[in-house]
Amino acid sequence: MNYFSSRGISSPVSAAQAITMGIASDGGLFVPETIPQLKIGDLENMKSWNYRQRALYILQQYLGDFSRQEIELCVNSAYNQSRFNHEKIAPLVRLDKGLFIQELWHGPTLAFKDMALQILPHLLITSMRITGVTEDIVILVATSGDTGKAALEGFKNIDRTKVIVFYPQEGVSVVQKRQMITQEGNNVYVAAVAGNFDDAQAGVKRIFADNNFAARLQAEGLKLSSANSINWGRLVPQIIYYISAYVDLLDAEEIKPGDKVNIVVPTGNFGNILAAYYASRMGLPVNRLICASNSNNVLTEFINTGSYDRNREFHKTISPSMDILISSNLERLLYEVTDHDADRVRGWMQELAEKGYYEIDDNSRSIIRQNFQGGYCSDEDTLDTIRKTWKQYRYLPDTHTAVALNVYEKYRNTTGDTKPAIVASTASPFKFGSSVAQALLSPAMLENKPDFELLKLLSSAAGIEIPTAIRDLESLSVRHNTVTTAMEMPETIARFLNI
Questions:
Q1: 148, 324, 350, 382: which has the fewest C-beta neighbours closer than 10 Å?
Q2: Is the pLDDT score of 466 beyond 90?
Q3: Taking the model in full, what pTM does it have?
């Protein structure tokens, strides 16, 4: 299978080339030429398979220039008991009749990004071998919090790679920041960016489009790639867990073959819910894809109106991984709903870059409305949802999962749609524990308490042990304290690499 740029100027490439390059030379995102179709009976057959077997089958459909043995090695290296603390990798938890949480945070960094970033290094190294790349790869990452740590952890000490992470200086949780600035590894670099995530993301995109900088790296035997979900190798593993969740529901006899489900995803950069869209296009029986946003509700407005406008107030929220106003992966959806009309997509992306605004045509808007539902909630509603979920089900969601639960409840109450729902739970509650604590603890208990003290109080109140990966953070030494601006990012990279 070939992969095309969503902007239509770059030449088609193989899967291994797309993964190695990360982003097309014209600035577009790589998309598959066709979407593979699940065969009749595939979902039923998968019931007896473990997560690794399901992953192998699905990845084979997309990675045509990889051998079965190569994919199997990647899968087995990523999804094992030494990396994930649950044997099912992405287990389902039943909250109520027809309401299920899929926990995507049982990997080493306690966030859903591990689902892709534990396998991406293996896919990338294999791709380099397949394509004959001789340069070492520099992985460039802009993060709103979770991707950064997951990339650092996934790529640390991997031969022929270096990973550089940029995060918004004041736009991540205390735990997220601590996870990144204490990261060990002989090939990892971290820098805070003065500004928000969109500033960091824009800086990374400018670097990828800078031919002079690429030549500078090439002269040193280096080549850029990405671990953000703009890289197809990051996105394709995320398709797996939605299909796996459906199969688990079949296996538990919660649904019958062919029954449609709703999938609810908290998202800011649109990658996680886009993976669910690709799963549905493969033939997974999906009724609605419910896109849940916080107060930065640019995606809700887009889904409801067809107008994308980033010219709005930016809100810092208690669900910071969704504090994003430029959703990069939306470009791939536009390419799909316009029947691969790259000219139109390129025009919209140019309008976004120049004006911060674009409006899609009526037909594309209609297709999106047929598949997606958008909703958002405030910080106050997020805390209230955490409180209610704990009281009703004795289940403690993090702030992002609470956004999804709140938006889903409003959707169900408004539409009366009671089809089974899979809610993507994107992080351990302790990753955003100081915010989650606000929902469970009294103001007196919260007053003047540092973040790590709040984690201990939350653990005691909920009767849930703090995960080791977070509990030990406070005692780790800070290894990365660089602060830069978006415009200074190229020179920051050059200093890191000594070029």
A1: 350
A2: yes
A3: 0.95
